[in-house]
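Hi R.,

Here's the chain you asked about this morning:
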Amino acid sequence: MKRMISANNLLLVGIVVVGAAVLGMATSGQFFGPVSMTSFFRFVSVPILIGLAQMITLCVGQLNLAVGAIGGVAACFTGVIVTSWGVPPWIGALVAVLTGAVLGLVNGLLVVGTRINGFIVTLAMSQILIGVQYALVGTRTIERKAWPELAAFGRSEILGIPTIFLMTLVVAVIVALYFAQTVSGRKLLASGGNASAAQLAGISTDRALIVAHTLSGLLCGVAAMVSISFLPGVNTTVGGDWLLPSFAAPIIGGVALAGGTVAVLGTVLAAMVVRLVDAASPIFRFDAEVVNFVVGAVVLGTVALGKLREVQASRHASRIRSLRAEAALAEVKR
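And here is the predicted structure, written out as tokens:
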């Protein structure tokens, strides 16, 4: 509970409320209309999912630069097997999730097997998967009329709230419970917080890396499934703009780049902040470059502030140790 009401989360809640109020005033209240609200919650689902996917790799001190490429391949592969192979749409949706998990597993095995930093491995994999995505669909767009059941799911609502958004919140709760209540989740955090101490405690850091990348890929697959359900169609652009939001959500949400921490609620709230910035773009006529600059600047500022806090905390701890040492020395002299 204390983590949920942290200062960072309260700040993010305030930003979401103020941002929504500003957009409401700028649109004379139309932003709070049922159509706008439904659209907002529907489109924020993917940023939340990819933010959680990135958060899981960050918690073990890794990066996943293949987030968008994994989701793009999963979405395009599903489109191909549904339209060309006659696979039922719901089976195709499951295949999208499994494809993401398998590609994440490959990333994890490569990181552990080659002992190359995950930054390099996932960067290389992203380029390979972009080629695979193009090989699957080329320059064509597979329209969503090929999967009417999934399209209906993407449009469905429960009490006026998009079903896919509610599903995304359920996924977020499952992720939170995984890290808070399961041994596997705590092992990931221990591995990311201090790999040497984790190994001394009998925790396999290699296994932790593989599990983290697999779960990250799994969530990318879920994001691909969600994208398929509400996008007009799938093509090589799917996943192309996922990388920056995937980092922005967890970092702004309070996840440390060094590993050992997660912030599920913070990631969800930060994804909403990023989505509010996107929603403000057409209203205030911001260019896409301006939006990317703002989001990137916020991410950089958040990292810089985090580093500043770490330095201040280290200095404070050193000062306390010095005072204790001086007090002990004075006691000995007496």
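One quick note: The chain has a mean pLDDT of 90.

Cheers,
M.
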